[in-house]
Amino acid sequence: MMILTDKKPRVNIEGILTAEEIHEIQHHIEHYPYPRAACLDALKHVQRRNGWVDDAQMNAIAQMLSMSLADLEGVATFYNRIYRQPVGRHVILLCDSIACFLMGAETLAEAFQRELGIQYGQTTADGRFTLLPICCLGNCDKGPTLMIDEDTHGLVEVASIKQLLEKYV
């Protein structure tokens, strides 16, 4: 006979998260009335190490925050800057909002895909770039706009793509 319980098996978080990550997450937890409120801070911090958050790390974070994995996954997938699969060293986010679309974002996206030899959601063979769409970067007056890592680039033209990519060697 199987007994169902709401108890989750405990995960040994050491070896999954670094001592520094554990310390930092605990530090964030102390700043909120409920541990789960630190989930976005924890996800961002853990992502800094490898550029994405894997399943084992998700389990460890959920355990530290006393929240279900499903709830944490909901947060991670809601925010488009938390990556749940490996990404390149540089993530290119191309705005596809209506304002950027009207300013040529679709043509720009096609040019990036040709230049990089990948489609949206893919990473170049050398692991240098991942190309992703994003619904809005809040830079509508300078469309088409994109972000590479934390750098916002507005009024981007197809002719400037190679020069722009060379900055991220």
Automatic annotation (TrEMBL):
One GO molecular-function entry: metal ion binding
Residue numbers binding [2Fe-2S] cluster: 95, 100, 136, 140
PROSITE patterns xrefs: COMPLEX1_24K
Presence of the UniProt keyword NADP in the record: no
Keywords from the UniProt entry: 2Fe-2S, Iron, Iron-sulfur, Metal-binding, Oxidoreductase
Bound cofactor: record note: Binds 1 [2Fe-2S] cluster.
Catalytic activity, reaction form: a quinone + NADH + 5 H(+)(in) = a quinol + NAD(+) + 4 H(+)(out)
Family membership noted in the UniProt record: Belongs to the complex I 24 kDa subunit family.
Description of how the protein assembles with itself and partners: Composed of 13 different subunits. Subunits NuoCD, E, F, and G constitute the peripheral sector of the complex.
Protein name: NADH-quinone oxidoreductase subunit E
Gene: nuoE
